[in-house]
Amino acid sequence: MKNIIYFLIVASSLLACKSKSHEETQAVSVNHRTIRKIDIHSHFRYSRKYLPVLHKKWNMRSVLVDVSIEDSIGIARSWQPYLTHSQAHPDLFFLCSSFIGVDIDSPNFRQRIIEQLSQEISSGAKMVKVWKNFGMVTKDSSGNYIQIDDARLQPIWDFLKGKGIAVMAHIGEPEQAWRLLDPDNPHFGYYKNNPQYHAFNIPDIPSYDSIIAARDRWIENNPDLKILCAHLGSMSHDVDMVADRLDNYPNMYVEPAARFGDLARQNPKKVGAFFAKYQDRIMFGTDFGNSNPEEAMTDAELEQEKEELDANYTLLWDYLSSTDTLEIRGQTTVGLGLPASILDKVYFQNSVNFLKLE
C-alpha cells in the first residue's frame, strides 16, 4: 500500500514540472483565480498545514479518492484518514469511497459491500471508485480474473443507481503496459518501478482489448449509472478512442489525471478540438497526493513538496489555458489555449453537476 501511495505523489511530480517563459504568447489571458476548481481525483492521505492555503490560492476543492488494494495482510484502504481529513476541512474536501472484488464467491459478498458503501455514503461519500484490480489483479475462487462486467457485481451497481451515486472507474492501464517498455513513453518510469502491472511480462493478465471491452459492456449494460472513466478511460494515447466511447455511451464521462503526458504526445489542435467538442463531459483531475505524515518530514521537505505541488498545478493550468511551449513528463508540446467558458466547465461546473453538489 505504501508503494502505491508513494507512486501517486512521485508520478505527479514527474509531470516534468516546468513550463517555458510566460512571456510567450497566450491565446487568452485568464487569471487562474477567477475560475473555481474541483480536482476530482486526488490522494492527499496526510494533512498538511499548507494544503488549505494552497487550495484557497488556486480557488480549488479536491475529491479524496479512496483505493481498495489487497495486500499480504488484507485489504488496505485510505478511507479513515480521508474521512478525518475531510471532517477537519469540509470546505475543501469531498470523499470518494471504494470496494474490491476479493471473496466475490462468498455468499455474503454483495451484502457486505452494499452495507459498507451505504455507511460510507451516509458519512459523505459522493462517489465510489473501482480500480484496475478488476481485470488485472483479483481472481475468483476458480482462478479467473474478475472483470468489471461480471454479473456477480450487478446488485452493487443497482444499489448505487438507487442512491444516485456515480462510479469512478480506473479499469485497465495505458496500452504501454502490454508492450515492451519504451524509454520515451511517459509511463516508462511507472512500469519500470512497478513491474507487477507491466502486463507485457505477465502473460496471465488478460489483454488490453479484452479489459477495455469488458469495461465498455459494463457501461452499456448500466445506462442509468453515471460513470467517470479515470485517466481518460485508459485510452489516453488516442483521443479518438475516447471520443468514440463518449459518442456511444451518454452516461460516460472522463478525467485526465496522470495522463497529461499522453495528451502532450498528440497534436495539440486535435486535443483542443476534443476538449471543445466534449466540454460537458470532461473534468479536471490530477492524481496528486502525498505519501508521508507531516510529522515525519522536515520543514525543508514540506516546503519543497508544497513548491512542487504548486508548480504542477501551474503546469496543468498553463497546458489547458495558454498556448505556451511546455514539457509534460518528457513530452514537448504547446498549450491548448482553451477559452474561459470551457475552462469553467472542465475545472468546476462539470464536477458540480456530476457529483450533484449544487
UniProtKB/TrEMBL annotation:
Keyword Transmembrane: no
Keywords: Hydrolase
Keyword hit for Ribosomal protein: no
Pfam family, any one: Amidohydro_2
Domain spans labelled Amidohydrolase-related: 114-304
GO molecular function, one term: hydrolase activity
Superkingdom of the source species: Bacteria
Name the record gives this protein: Amidohydrolase
